[in-house]
Amino acid sequence: MLSRYKDSYVSYVIFYMGYYALFSLFGSVMSVYLTGIGMADWEMSLILSAAGMFSFFVTPVTGYINDRAKSQRAVLAVLLLAIGGLALLYARCRGLAALFVLNGLTMALINSVTPVCERIAGESRYRYGLLRVWGTIGYAAGAQAAGLAVEKLPGWGLFALTAGACGVCLLGLYGVGVGSAARPQSGGQATGEKPRLSALLESPRFFLFLGAAFLFAGCSGVNINYAPVLLNRLGIPTGAVGTVLFLSTLTEIPLILFSHKFMDRFSGRALMGAAFCLAIGQYLAYGMAGEAWVVVAVMVLVKAVASTLYMMLSLKMVRCLVPPGLTTTGLGVVASVNNLAAIAMQNAGGWATGRWGMGAMYLGMAALCGAGLALTCFLKAEREETVFG
Q1: I need a labelling partner for 42 at 20 to 30 A (CA). Which of 99, 113, 226, 260 fits?
Q2: pLDDT digit string (tens) for 244-258?
Q3: Residue 180 per-residue DSSP state
Q4: How far apart are CA 255 and CA 308, in angstroms?
Q5: Half-sphere exposure at residue 64, Cβ-oriented, CA atoms within 13 angstroms
């Protein structure tokens, strides 16, 4: 049975459901949890921005370690065990400084696992969409469970569920094919030959993509944290907020399942432009609409689609712009830029919300995404890779 479980589809299902469930359990309604224990808007923004500050340094390092480690499975297991332990410790803290440090460390480790998950899905013998769709289902279930946990369970309940999801992910990790790509990148080096780390600096187009990624990811990170608060302030209870996030995540499923139909067919420039257009429309709706049903409808239909398209595009662009053998490192650099954007945007968003209100903050984010859309016009991949087929 153990031999059949190794590299089986079931093991991937368990791994992706467990990982994305723990991601959403810890992060999807954290803003609501923090305001619920008495944190002001600026304190909440400061605590949540710690994720970007810590991840900026941690994610590229863990990505490089994963590219070089003899046992990538052991590295992932250590990360997941640490996440579970930190989540349980988080439940016992109420001080601003302690929550800042623990949120930063926990999210840094969670973000360190994400690039590896994407690389595994892109290199597995199974099609990308058939694996990542289970991550979407896990995230949706985690978001619903997180909303109910904050509303119905004691304070520690949310973090106990997070630790449990880490255990599920570890069970899946035992079976998945880590570091044994069935679909190697074209143009790779000879067996055992590793490209220089400095090769990342030799692609100007990669830096152009990082600039566009900074704007998109920064605004998206603020939206992830403020969307539950926006729904709360429109009169929607916390349990129903989890349901809205659950439904919005389910809209990812067709996008992921049919990713092989369009992700390799369209250029990175066209896909990035589409992601920015979706983000602009979403933020304009949040900033201008005063009715809860309008915000809920846009959130269900657009929020997860835009962020998922960007996530898949990041994998595509790294595979096309970064030398083979540095995929995880390249994804780590993208994640680090995302985190740097989160640091700047999260604190700026908290300040703007306190000064002018949440509607003005969202309109400002729409303007920033407009600048990112203009930058995308110059984006072009240096080579084409089949990633999603």
Answers
A1: 113
A2: 888 888 888 888 888
A3: -
A4: 8
A5: 12
Rg (CA), the chain: 20
Reported as a single tens digit per residue, the pLDDT across 286-333 is 998 778 888 899 998 988 888 889 888 888 888 877 776 677 677 778
**Cβ contacts of 198 within 8 Å, gap of 6 or more:** none
Tokens of 348: 């700026």
Alpha-carbon span 96 to 176, nearest angstrom = 38
Q: Tell me which residue of 45, 116, 51, 48 sits closest to 79, measured CA to CA.
A: 116
Dig out the tokens for 144 from the structure: 């619903």
Single-letter code of the amino acid located at 20: Y
Q: Which residue has the tokens 């209870």?
A: 237
Query: Residue 151 and residue 40: Cα distance in Å, rounded?
Result: 19
Compute the distance between CA of residue 278 and CA of residue 255 in angstroms, rounded to an integer: 14
Find out whether 249 and 224 touch, Cβ atoms under 8 Å.
Answer: no
- How many of the other CB atoms lie within 10 Å of CB of 4? 10
Rounded to 5°, the CA angle 322-317-9 comes to: 100
Predicted TM-score (pTM) of the model is 0.71
Residue pair 347/260 in contact (Cβ under 8 Å)? The answer is: no
- Which percentage of the chain shows pLDDT scores above 90? 23
Distances in Å between the Cα of 159 and the Cα atoms of 27, 28, 99, 103, 147 are 11, 12, 13, 12, 12
DSSP string, 196-237: -GGGGGG-HHHHHHHHHHHHHHHHHHHHHHHHHHHHHHTT--
For residues 17 and 37, give the distance between their C-alpha atoms in angstroms, rounded to a whole number: 29
Q: What is the pLDDT averaged over residues 159-166?
A: 93
- Give the position of tokens 């926006």: 230
DSSP character for 154? -
Strands, E, within the chain: which ranges? none
CB atoms inside a 10 Å sphere around CB 195: 16
Using alpha carbons, list the distances in angstroms from residue 277 to 218, 285, 299: 15, 12, 15
Q: Which of 351, 365, 338, 359 is nearest to 43 (CA)?
A: 351
Cβ pair 56, 217 in contact under 8 A: no
Closest CA to 299 of 314, 321, 276, 283: 283
Distance in angstroms (rounded) separating the CA atoms of residues 122 and 18:
18
